[in-house]
Design brief:
The chain is an alpha+beta fold. It is 25% helix and 25% strand. It contains 16 helices and 30 strands. The strands form 7 sheets. Strands 2, 3, 4, 5, 16, 17, 20, 21 and 22 form a 9-stranded mixed β-sheet that branches. Strands 7-8-15-10-13 form a 5-stranded antiparallel β-sheet, with helices on one face. Strands 9-14-11-12 form a 4-stranded antiparallel β-sheet, with no helix packed on it. Strand 27 (551-557) and strand 28 form a beta hairpin. Helix 1 crosses helix 9 (387-414), helix 3 (91-100) runs parallel beside helix 11 (475-487) and helix 6 packs parallel to helix 9 (387-414). It starts with a helix and ends with a helix. The model is unreliable at 1-40 and 206-221 (pLDDT under 50).
Length: 685
């Protein structure tokens, strides 16, 4: 009964696929050469990102509240990294680094409207090349399909957090079909399966309350000779009043609230000027009224149109009344179309279809990202007032996500899938709650509450004993090479990843982690390397550097006010101090510079004059994990040592940039819906 309840809670499906996974084993020469090894068999790889989750708000990292019992339980059986550092303080550049193993200044995906660069090899592409079916289930608008982040994924969809959990469960149980993957032959096969079960065909079966009602009426509304396989096909032509074209299709269908359905029909068109699809209309729904299939136009022989559907409203008795309709085409001009073999089928009645070999899933949940609106049951779980109430709601969102994941993990375990899946739980960045005078996260957040995120690996064959590692790792750029190393994946030729595997035992990886300042608006237009840590020491520089060909630009805030700008060319060094940007732009110092150098100087000045970039900071994290005591005046030698490491990394990045050219993915116009979502997340005013 317990497992049945779990399934009923999470089986909501916008689309379905069926998977039969084949094991992948580390330690072999190539993935395709692997042979069975039960203790390390990996059927699936699941990367879970919990957006804006700081490490120190999980129990496994010492948090005093019980926010994460299910994540903690999983972590206590696997590998936990205590010093995982992201390379950017907000989602878009951070996830791009996860996908490409490139630092933000190298991949260049910095602004809300920018698309993913097409010429970069992605995490999903590597897995797909190695025989995995690849799926991305995401909720954050910054990494939506329209921005190109679906590159390499067989299926990449933006859905709600609740839907992500539900789809994950269905994927793991082999009950998931991505309709967009079906080619013509596969659609024909699915159509054949449907038509061999007459009870699913609403024209001839019992799906309608009165099966023939939708196909009854005047004789010229139906034609025996044009039927696909039913008794009659409904023929639609232009009539005097456009709405009359669809009146005879408004058959009501009683469906179960919360059930998952596959619906569609065979459609034939002739010289159709507009587009037509098949829709389900739900009069009582609060969220939407129509769910439509793909559309066709022109002249087509019988074509199967499909979509998934889950009723959103209930009559109080767990029943939903819907109507099936054709798309509203008003401009026929002598054209016509036919509809036949309409079906609405419970997903559970479908047989397995389109098995896949191996599975890689990237699941990116939006919560606990602001605005902090936990579900009602978690709203007052951690009670507080004033500013503390924000933390309480944030913790409530963590606990709600933990509960959802717990249901998933428990269901996977009951089905024997948990131990067959490599699970990675991490985040794209953390969140600040006034720890250092600021709130939330962004391009100029460098302290541990934003930089340090959870990183947890679970698989009983790979990690049979609990283990913790305290050396710093670069969570974003190191993920891809680490999975390549761990699973012995082959990689496309010509790749140049900047991260290093944290499973590399050769001793070649550096025990350092870096964090970059990455803009998300056009005011600050450049990426700057800001932070380096070796695990014990952490240094945040106040030096901002750029280069235009052979000209070096350095900007540093001075305690007596203004930015000291130094421009060094092959001819020598020129230095000046300016209190405001206008004074800089009006100066002889600025006017004599080339235009490209002026642009770089302008950006460096703005970055160095910002309130979060004025002070250099040095912390001993072992003694001061909260970063309260700036030791830069006490230990300037250590600060200079770490500053030199930053300069070395800047030079290494430049050398890489000169060898590997990244082609911009271009920009997309932000429509009203995207702007609304960005505004809700706090990225637009």
């Amino acid at each position: 009964m317990k497992n049945r309840n779990i399934v009923s809670l999470i089986l909501i499906l916008p689309f379905i696929i069926f998977l039969v996974a084949i094991p992948v084993f580390p330690g072999q020469n190539r993935v395709e050469e692997n042979t069975a090894a039960p203790d390390s068999a990996i059927k699936n790889v699941l990367v879970i990102i919990l957006d804006a989750l700081r490490a120190d708000h999980l129990g496994i990292y010492g948090y005093h509240r019980n926010t994460s019992p299910n994540i903690d339980a999983l972590a206590r059986k696997g590998l936990v990294f205590d010093r995982a550092i992201v390379q950017a303080g907000w989602t878009k550049p951070s996830v791009t680094s996860y996908f490409t193993s490139l630092y933000p200044n190298l991949h260049g995906v910095l602004f809300s409207e920018e698309n993913f660069p097409e010429n970069l090899t992605t995490l999903a592409e590597v897995f797909r090349q190695n025989g995995y079916s690849t799926y991305g289930l995401i909720h954050n608008v910054h990494i939506s399909p329209s921005h190109g982040f679906g590159q390499g994924f067989d299926v990449y969809r933006k859905i709600s957090d609740e839907q992500i959990i539900n789809d994950l469960w269905l994927i793991m149980n082999g009950r998931y079909l991505a309709l967009e993957q079906l080619d013509g032959k596969e659609k024909e096969e699915l159509g054949r399966v449907i038509l061999t079960n007459p009870e699913w065909n609403l024209v001839t079966g019992s799906g309608f309350e009165t099966p023939d009602k939708a196909w009854s009426g005047e004789s010229w509304w139906r034609e025996r000779g044009t039927a696909h396989s039913g008794h009659y096909a409904t023929r639609i032509t232009r009539k005097s009043f456009p709405h009359s074209n669809f009146y005879h299709l408004r058959q009501k269908i009683g469906l179960d609230y919360g059930e998952n359905y596959l619906f569609g029909a065979f459609v034939k068109t002739r010289d159709l000027k507009g587009e037509v699809g098949i829709s389900l209309y739900e009069p009582g729904a609060r969220q939407y009224k129509y769910v439509s299939t793909d559309r066709i136009s022109g002249t087509n022989d019988w074509t199967l149109l499909l979509e998934n559907y889950r009723p959103q409203s209930s009559d109080g008795l767990n029943r939903t009344e819907v109507q099936i309709r054709a798309g509203r085409v008003t401009d026929f001009q002598g054209s016509e179309f036919w509809i036949d073999d309409v079906f609405v089928i419970p997903v559970g009645n479908l047989p397995p279809f389109r098995p896949a070999d191996r599975l890689f899933i990237y699941a990116h949940f939006l919560d606990p990202h602001a605005p902090y609106l936990p579900p009602r049951d978690y709203l007052n779980l951690f009670a507080g007032t004033g500013e503390a109430a924000l933390i309480d709601k944030y913790d409530g969102e963590i606990r709600a996500q933990d509960t959802r994941l717990g249901l998933l993990f428990e269901s996977m375990e009951a089905a024997g899938l948990l131990d067959q899946t490599l699970i990675i739980i991490t985040s794209d960045h953390g969140e600040e709650f006034g720890d250092h005078g600021y709130w939330r996260h962004g391009p100029k957040f460098f302290h541990e509450e934003v930089a340090r995120i959870p990183l947890i690996y679970h698989h009983p064959g790979l990690f049979p004993k609990p283990e913790r590692r305290d050396e710093p790792v670069e969570a974003s750029v190191d993920l891809l090479p680490s999975l390549i190393d761990l699973l012995d994946l082959s990689v496309p030729e010509g790749n140049a990843f900047r991260g290093k595997s944290y499973f590399d035992e050769s001793g070649s990886r550096s025990p350092l982690a870096y964090l970059y300042e990455t803009p998300h608006d056009r005011i600050f237009r450049q990426v700057y390397l800001k932070t380096v840590t070796d695990g014990k020491w952490k240094y945040i520089t106040n030096e901002y550097r750029d280069r235009v060909e052979e000209t070096e630009i350095l900007g540093v805030w001075r305690d007596d006010g203004g930015v000291e700008v130094t421009v060094t060319t092959t001819a020598g060094e020129d230095k000046a101090v300016y209190a405001d940007i206008q004074a800089l732009q009006d100066s002889d110092f600025f006017q004599k510079l080339d235009r490209d150098v002026q642009f770089a100087v302008h950006n460096v000045y703005l970055a160095a004059s910002g309130p979060k970039g004025r002070e250099a900071m040095l912390y001993n994290l072992e003694e001061d994990p909260g970063e309260k005591n700036n030791l830069i005046e006490i230990n300037p030698e250590k600060a200079r040592e770490l500053q030199l490491l930053i300069e070395d990394r800047i030079e290494a990045d430049r050398n890489f940039q000169s060898r590997v050219k990244v082609t911009s993915g271009g920009k997309m116009e932000l429509n009203d819906q995207v702007r609304k979502e960005l505004r809700a997340l706090g990225y637009l005013q």
